[in-house]
Design a protein that fits this description.
Blueprint (H helix, E strand, L loop, with lengths): L2 H22 L10 H31 L14 H126 L5 H12 L4 H17 L8 E3 L3 H8 L4 H7 L3 E6 L21 E6 L9 H17 L2
Antiparallel strand pairs: 1-3, 2-3
Helix pairs in contact: 1-2, 1-3, 2-3, 4-7, 5-6, 5-8
């Protein structure tokens, strides 16, 4: 690697760290923020989105170069350590871009809700002004009755009737608008809940994978007083999979399972261990729930919209990719052996 390439790679990694810091802090986003603050955060998120696009382009260039060799010495331009860094950087860039896109959508949802609230407030103010106009018309009618005669009185009554008709029409329009805004708010809330689940899925699937990471997670789990229960749960899951690798139901876990939460996921390193040994998170529509760890159908909703997170370990097709299947099965076996 040339000095120029090393400098470019180092700068790109630092920019990625800045964006990751913003993303991990959630951009300090709160639903009770003012419109001005939300627009300021929206600007920052948009800027980070542009940075992510640049970083993805940089990572693509390094991914193209990672397998190149020196034309004279035929030696690889990059060592194994640098290739691993390039691949981790590429994966991180994609994760950052997806995460920033989700945050931007959440900011825009909250901002639109604030703007809708302002619109409703403006409509209420207009209604108050119209009611004041009716009161003024009534006062004018009294003056007309006192000094302007029957013709002035009739004119005032006609004006009042017209104002009352307008008020009824305006109230009906305001009621329709209120229902429309309420329906839109409910849809935004449902979509926001699903987006939050998708953001959690991206975070889970970006966790480290492989036997080395699995062993590191076990060390973290062992620091807990409940480590024996957690190890037993992991051993049961992996033993069932290795015993019946073609049983799809044994390779599905419900993230909101009370048993799984109590014995494994409540411990630091528990979720990370499942991801490290090959489980991936996905969004699934909920239909029912029971007390088992595994799930052959979707789970009960964890948010509005009836969706929840499911952990799935995918088995390669041995008829199409036998080497891939053997590598997958051996990986599960190595993780199981690490539990002994």
């Amino acid at each position: 690697m040339t000095d120029r390439e090393m400098s470019d790679f180092s700068k790109a990694c630092k920019r990625a760290e800045v964006v990751r810091g913003h993303l991990d802090a959630g951009y300090e986003l709160k639903e009770d923020m003012s419109i001005a603050d939300l627009k300021r955060i929206e600007k920052v998120v948009n800027e980070d989105g542009s940075i992510c696009k640049d970083l993805v382009a940089v990572s693509a260039k390094f991914m193209e170069k990672k397998d190149q060799v020196d034309p004279v010495t035929k030696a690889a331009r990059f060592g194994p350590s640098m290739i691993a860094k390039i691949m981790d950087f590429s994966s991180n860039c994609v994760s950052l871009e997806e995460g920033v896109a989700l945050v931007l959508e959440q900011v825009q949802i909250i901002l639109q809700a604030k703007l809708d609230e302002e619109a409703v407030a403006a409509a209420l103010e207009m209604e108050q002004q119209r009611e004041l106009a009716i009161q003024e018309a009534a006062a004018a009618q009294l003056l007309a009755e006192a000094g302007a005669g029957a013709r002035a009185k009739e004119a005032a009554e006609a004006g009042r009737a017209l104002a009352e008709q307008q008020l009824v029409a305006d109230k009906a329009a305001a009621a329709r608008e209120s229902k429309r805004l309420e329906a839109e708010a409910q849809e935004r809330a449902r979509k926001g809940a699903i987006d939050a689940l998708n953001a959690e899925i991206i975070r889970i699937n970006s966790l480290p994978k492989g036997v080395i990471s699995f062993k590191s997670c076990l060390e973290t789990i062992d620091s807990s007083s409940s480590s024996l229960n957690a190890r037993k749960v992991l051993k049961d899951i992996l033993s069932n999979i290795t015993a019946k690798p073609d049983n799809e139901g044994l390779r599905k876990l419900r993230l909101n399972s009370s048993v799984l939460q109590e014995k494994l996921l409540s411990l630091k390193g528990g979720l990370e261990a499942l991801v490290a040994c090959g489980f991936k998170a996905c969004l699934q529509k909920a239909e029912g729930e029971d007390g088992d760890l595994s799930a052959t159908s979707a789970t009960s909703a964890t948010s509005e919209g009836g969706y929840s997170i499911l952990l799935i370990m995918t088995e390669p097709n041995p008829e199409k990719d036998m080497m891939g299947w053997v590598e997958w099965f051996d990986g599960v076996g190595h993780c199981l052996k690490a539990l002994e």
